[in-house]
Specification:
- This protein has about 50 residues and is an all-alpha fold.
- It has a domain of about 30 residues.
- Helix content is about 80%, strand content about 0%.
- It has two helices and no strands.
């Protein structure tokens, strides 16, 4: 399907991503990060 990784990267870069999709992506990453960091902080307090 692809001759090389370079062609695959070029095709991926050409994809149009709407602002709404990008915003949802970053919001999801932020929410997951908050949950993970919060869980680690709670675990650290619980161990004390």
């Amino acid at each position: 399907m692809f001759e090389s990784l370079e062609e695959r990267i070029e095709q991926d870069e050409k994809k149009d991503v709407s602002g709404k999709d990008r915003l949802l992506h970053y919001l999801a990453i932020t929410a997951i990060s908050v949950v993970v960091v919060g869980g680690l902080a709670m675990a650290a307090q619980f161990v004390r």
